[in-house]
Amino acid sequence: MTDPVKTRIWAQQCLAEFDAADSGLMKAALALAVLQDSRIDLETATGQVNRLVAAASAAFVADLPATLGDAVVLLNHVMLDAQGFGGDHETPEDPSNACMGRLLRRRRGLSAGLGIVYVHTARAVGLEAAAINFPDHVFIRLSQGKESVIVDPYHGGMQHGAAGLRALLKALAGPDRELGREDYRPIDDRALLMRLQMERKYLHMKASDSAGAARAIGGLLAIDAGEAELLWEQGVLLLHSGDTAGGQDSLRRYLAREGELGNRARAAELLQSLTLQSA
């Protein structure tokens, strides 16, 4: 078992030092998981990642793919078939789907979490991999030289061309929405981690778990502390969960930010009201 205090210190340091241009995507995802759920054992989760990477590496050594298409087939076979990772189509509203530690144990998740596992494994076997800027669902772009392919790990590693993505986009955003270059644009690892945390916040909100949603926002702030409005949202959620002290702290931190903050007046009024109630 991992020492929870040491693990928390490690996680905080890991996120403070996170560099989206580095190769620390999985480490950061695990750091977010243990910060939000102290029951997750870091050693166990790391071992699960290492076994997946070892299996993929062995497969690529034993049968070196000649083309990118062959590489995708082999990667899908190892991760999705042999190792059993896949989209959670039975309980998609379970917040465990957006917690990397629990996703690794269950081998089930939503598109952002599975996308992180897929990107990490693909990079470990020498492929270029990144999520793309498609709305509401994470697709992974794999590249090798001038070749590239778009893969959906959540739906069994299905590959999508422009026509398929265009149809999905219209289904999500309406018939007038056209597929553009921005939808294909690769996003960096920080943005992918933000997608993971947004999924987690959404799942907790859907379960009416204000405290869980506030913890997910804490993860978002750990990745990008510049998002001041998240402090306002976190403060309101903490107050709603019954954590008055935590809510007040988030609102005070929000008001301490410089610049135009959309909910500054409401935050000040709420703090004043809470102060009067406690007097």
Strand order of the largest sheet: 3-4-5-6
Which oligomeric state applies?
single chain
**Strands, total number:** 6
Number of helices: 13
Instruction: Specify the structural class.
Output: alpha+beta
Distance between the termini: 45 Å
What share of residues are in beta strands? Answer: 5-15%
Throw out a few tags for this protein.
single chain, 279 residues, two-stranded parallel ribbon, 13 helices, globular
Commentary on this structure:
This protein is 61% helix and 8% strand. With 279 residues, the protein is an alpha+beta fold. The longest helix is centred in the N-terminal third of the chain and has 21 residues, at 42-62.
Q: Topology of this structure?
A:
Elements: H1 4-16, H2 25-36, H3 42-62, H4 68-82, E1 86-87, H5 100-106, E2 108-109, H6 111-124, E3 128-131, E4 140-144, E5 147-152, E6 158-160, H7 162-173, H8 181-184, H9 189-206, H10 210-223, H11 229-241, H12 244-256, H13 264-278
Parallel strand pairs: 1-2
Antiparallel strand pairs: 3-4, 4-5, 5-6
